[in-house]
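Field log, afternoon session.

UNIT: design team B
ACTIVITY: writing a sequence onto a fixed backbone
BACKBONE:
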């Protein structure tokens, strides 16, 4: 686990470095290969804006994540993702020099600012959360039991990110030529780079880089601590002989 956590930290910091080192390309100057694009987003001409599943915001893309607090009784515990889903229609990014079609790969790529609803153990969830869970077959409302002044049960965080038309976005991915100028556009960005990077975000590049470095440092530190504890537990029996 320590090695896996270390590798995750290394991966996140390396991705941040690649974002920082990749120069922004004007859409009119696109060529096949890895590209970084900045502009505003809008749907295709025949797109029907979808409503996000929790807040009902009209958006071209949404991302929902549900986390539960898990604890083994030692320490405060940690938040683990128990459900995640994203929806996105093909969309366009316009940077003033032109526009390019973007189609998210199946394994994701959205990194959005998120609204949060936190439901404590034993609390009744707000109406929008109750409606969302009732309409999502993969989820059930958590059980809660009141014992005097104490409440037991699952603690959850519901997070929703939406990408609305007209928002400024950052994109890192691979551009390729369309076979027949699909929808009169010459290029489409719908694949990760050779380093497996695909990021579509309503955050600034600076924010994304800082988040990646900070998160990477936390994973590196946690991984090093796990390895140290594991090595200590292996060595300690021999030291007591």
């Amino acid at each position: 686990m320590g090695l896996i956590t270390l590798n995750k930290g290394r991966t996140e910091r390396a991705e941040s470095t690649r974002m920082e080192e990749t120069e922004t390309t004007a859409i009119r100057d696109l060529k096949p290969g890895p590209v970084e694009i900045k502009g505003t987003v809008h749907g295709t001409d025949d797109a029907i804006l979808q409503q996000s599943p929790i807040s009902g915001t009209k958006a071209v893309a949404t991302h929902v994540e549900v986390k539960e607090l898990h604890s083994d009784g030692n320490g405060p515990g940690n938040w683990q993702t128990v459900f995640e889903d994203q929806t996105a229609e093909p969309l366009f990014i316009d940077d003033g020099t032109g526009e390019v079609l973007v189609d998210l790969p199946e394994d994701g790529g959205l990194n959005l600012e998120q609204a949060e609803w936190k439901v404590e153990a034993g609390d009744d969830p707000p109406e929008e959360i109750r409606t969302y869970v009732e309409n999502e077959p993969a989820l059930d409302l958590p059980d809660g039991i009141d014992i005097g002044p104490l409440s037991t049960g699952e603690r959850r965080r519901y997070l929703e990110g939406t990408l609305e038309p007209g928002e400024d976005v950052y994109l890192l991915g691979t551009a390729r030529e369309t076979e027949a100028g699909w929808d009169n556009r010459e290029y489409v960005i719908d694949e990760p780079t050779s380093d497996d990077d695909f990021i579509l975000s309503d955050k600034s590049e600076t924010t994304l880089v800082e988040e990646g470095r900070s998160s990477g440092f936390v994973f590196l530190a946690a991984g090093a601590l796990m390895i140290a504890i594991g090595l200590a537990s292996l060595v300690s029996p021999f030291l007591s002989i």
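LOG NOTE: Residues 41 and 93 are 5 Å apart (CA to CA).
NEXT ACTIVITY: expression trials, pending approval
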